[in-house]
Amino acid sequence: MIQISPSLLSADFANLGRDVEMLNRSEADMIHLDVMDGVFVPNISFGFPVIKSIAPLAKKPLDVHLMIVDPGRYVSQVADCGAAIMNVHYEACTHLHRVIQQIRAAGMKAAVTLNPATPVVLLEDIVDEVDMVLLMSVNPGFGGQKFISHTLRKVEQLRDMINRHGSGALIEVDGGVNLDTGALLADAGADVLVAGNYVFSSPDPAETIAKLRRCDNR
Length: 218
Ligand code: DX5
Ligand code: ZN
Fold this sequence. Notes:
It is built from 8 helices and 8 strands, in the order E-H-E-H-E-H-E-H-E-E-H-E-H-E-H-H. The chain is an alpha/beta fold. D-xylitol-5-phosphate binds near residues 7, 141, 176, 177 and 194.
């Protein structure tokens, strides 16, 4: 069954505690947290103090997606926030292999993220070292954007690469996920779906999460 990582970027920031409690009671497998610095992406979201306040309330693993320049500077802060998974962009790390090692040494799972224009083949020399690959299916920076369909081909290419290497890396996809794109992604070989706007703009977010979790056997 596909895993769901709802993104708090589309939650009600004035009631984050309430939305985290909702996710605790839902079938969400993890909680996705989008950190933006206004430089790597053209938007600013929230930072470590917010994640630190959420962590004691959250009963699901925190999946932290850093859309920031040179994320390797913050490995220990992210670990101190209580993150289970630290996602760093391929495009933001000059020494990606070192950053991945540092993330694991800090006790977190390491994930590498690719922008829509970055080809999967660039992961050939790192796929054995990571716990997860996050494929962006929108240009990062904003929730509620349209799914870029060439991501389906990238998921298939990555699934082939992972099988060829015998790597245990999970494939996560982020951006424009709904029941339709979710079913296509599950077919293509995705393991984890991030969903923000589709979950939080729905009348019953917990029920939407449950439906997304079953989108592969509709
Ligand atoms: C976008 C973020 C996503 C975002 C997804 O830059 O990385 O996690 O919250 O939002 P939706 O599901 O609304 O496309
Ligand atoms: Zn994200």
